[in-house]
Write a structure and sequence with these properties.
The complex is a heterodimer of chains A (142) and B (432). Chain A has 142 residues and is an alpha+beta fold. Chain A contains 5 helices and 7 strands. By secondary structure, chain B is of the alpha/beta class. The chains are: A alpha+beta (142), B alpha/beta (432).
Chain lengths: 142, 432
């Protein structure tokens, strides 16, 4: 039910993001989605890639602080109100969204990447509500 | 004006005779009252009677900050605790502070010394003086305060932390003198300029210390505020501020030599430097009762001039400081050792033991940034997690140094690794 998100710590220095992307390119790792959270000092690059464990290994070898995090990649209707509906369910169950960003659009459907404050509880909610979530393997086939 | 011409203008021969008599007494005093010195002297085969004049001082052992740490907190006190009326404390090289104690007589001599220094700066009983050093364990606030009261000036005990209140009172009270760090005074001059209150200023003199500063900085302060500024020196181990100060000729700092006997040594060979040569300043406290120190190594680099000053004082003058023997930094008047940062970071498991301190001066105020590497095991991909971590480190550093530092997390393996003596400090200020 979970997908693996790859996070990379990047100092706010010129060219650092490029270096991360360079390592991914050299190892033929495709990025499906990314989000960059920034502060004045550093940034956190969060990536959905086709081969997260391999990407982590390669980036760690290149000296980056990285980690894999369990997130949900959720398939929702590509129409007004569908995201709100989803978040309502989480909110009712007392679950917070730590962060969220969009994945690519697939015709009628859209995907959002979401980190829940309580992953196991969110999993139960999604099961009960028949929410479609994608695993890393499924994502790599998109 | 000279506060105590009898002592400050003595002939060199009289001064040497007085210092010799006091040294003989001191050696006898510490031998019988401080186990540490008795042991040291016995190990060297020295008896109190072997010291007959200041010329014999080189026979005596040195004292270092580490000796104070090893005997923390009161091990080097020469009197029972009941005779100590006050303690102060300064940064130690690691976790423990350096504690100093004063008898009632020590405090009275301290005030006398500060009074001499303030008088060199032209302060009289007619003045209204703001003391803007920290009051508390730091010797700056209470030390300057005691001397200003001794003179009979009207003392405004500002302490530190509220610049707006300081400038308001400075104007409203018609403050004529101030005691604070030189960088803080520059900061104050900027505030006064911004407020447009420079023309209402009655300030005419400043006694600045607790951090090294250059002649160039003095002239800048003097021009900006249209005052005279004087350099006051001291260290808590020896007494506090008031050990030395420069007069209106600014040709070195006059040492209160009848109380603090100065020597200059070569720190590599531990032998006396030649006359006028630069070396490490060493003090022997000739009259202190609570915490008498024999040949205390200050780690400050300077030279001594024994010629008579144009102001009429005959006391030895130490030149403006030329640096430090050790790696101690003075940040916002607070003594900081990189080893303190190291010791504090060891307890934070989320970061590696590598660190870099970056000291700078922005708008005349010292800034300290500490860069740390996150330990991969504890890396989190949530900003609030990283922010919590920087707050935690910031708290630990504040507890250790008594100073706020900006914590910056950097990527792994980016900080210099120790190969022999690692560089842990980048000081961008021009202090010497």
């Amino acid at each position: 039910m979970f997908a693996k998100q790859l996070s990379v710590f990047i100092e706010n220095r010129q060219g650092r993001l490029c270096e991360v992307l360079g390592v991914l390119k050299e190892n033929n790792i495709n990025i499906l989605s990314l989000s960059l959270a920034d502060t004045t000092e550093y940034g956190l690059l969060r990536l959905i890639v086709n081969n997260p464990s391999y990407a982590k290994e390669k980036l760690t070898e290149s000296g980056f602080s990285t980690m894999l995090t369990d997130v949900f990649v959720i398939k929702i209707e590509h129409k007004a109100g569908s995201l709100q509906q989803l978040l309502d369910k989480l909110s009712d169950a007392g679950i917070n969204v730590e962060y969220m960003y969009g994945l690519s659009i697939d015709g009628e459907k859209a995907y959002v990447v979401l980190k829940a404050s309580d992953g196991e509880l969110a999993k139960a909610v999604f099961k009960k509500e028949n929410v479609i979530t994608l695993t890393s393997e499924e994502i790599s086939k998109i | 004006m000279i506060w105590n011409p009898n002592k400050e203008c003595m002939s060199r021969d009289e001064m040497t005779a007085l210092q010799s008599a006091r040294l003989v007494k001191l050696v006898d005093y510490v031998y019988h009252n401080v186990e540490f010195y008795r042991n040291k002297m016995q190990n060297l085969g020295l008896l109190p009677g072997d010291i007959k004049s200041v010329e014999d001082i080189t026979k005596l052992p040195f004292t270092t900050k580490d000796d104070l740490r090893d005997n923390y907190p009161f091990g080097l006190f020469a009197v029972p605790k009941t005779q100590i009326v006050r303690v102060h404390a300064s940064s130690g090289t690691t976790g423990k502070a350096t504690v100093v104690g004063y008898t009632r007589r020590d405090l009275s001599i301290w005030s006398e010394c500060v009074a001499r220094c303030l008088t060199m700066a032209g302060v009289t009983k007619e003045d209204i003086i703001q003391v803007a050093y920290g009051y508390g364990l730091f010797t700056g606030g209470l030390g300057a305060h005691g001397g200003a009261e001794e003179i009979g000036a009207m003392v405004v005990p500002m302490s530190t932390g509220n610049s707006k209140k300081l400038t308001t009172m400075m104007i409203d009270f018609g403050v004529t003198a101030i005691a604070c760090t030189p960088s803080y005074l520059l900061h104050i001059s900027e505030l006064l300029t911004e407020e447009g209150s420079l023309d209402k200023l009655k300030l005419r003199t400043a006694v600045c210390g607790a951090e090294p500063w250059t002649d160039k900085m003095r002239k800048e302060i003097e021009t900006r505020l249209n005052i005279t500024a004087h350099d006051i020196y001291g260290l808590s181990e020896v007494m506090g501020p008031g050990v030395a100060c420069d007069c209106s000729y600014h040709k070195g700092l006059h040492v209160c030599e009848d109380h603090f006997y100065p020597e200059i040594i070569n720190s590599a060979t531990m032998t006396p430097s030649k006359a006028g040569e630069t070396g490490e300043l060493v003090f022997t406290t000739l009259t202190k009762e609570g915490l008498p120190l024999i040949r205390y190594r200050t780690k400050d680099l300077t030279s001594i001039d024994y010629s008579v000053c144009q102001c009429g004082r005959t006391s030895a003058r130490i030149s403006k400081f030329k640096g430090r023997v050790d790696d101690m930094l003075i940040i916002r008047g607070v003594n900081v050792f990189p080893s303190q940062v190291e010791a504090a970071l060891v307890d934070v498991k989320e970061v590696t033991p590598h660190y870099m301190m970056i000291v700078d001066r922005v708008n005349n105020l010292d800034t300290l940034e500490i860069q740390v590497e996150i330990n991969n095991e504890y890396f989190t991909d949530e900003i609030k997690g990283l922010e919590k971590l920087t707050q935690k480190i910031s708290h630990v550093i504040n507890q250790a140094l008594g100073l706020n530092a900006k914590i910056k997390i950097v990527e792994p393996q980016t900080l210099v690794r120790s190969e022999g003596k690692a560089v842990h400090v980048i000081d961008k200020r021009k202090l010497y």
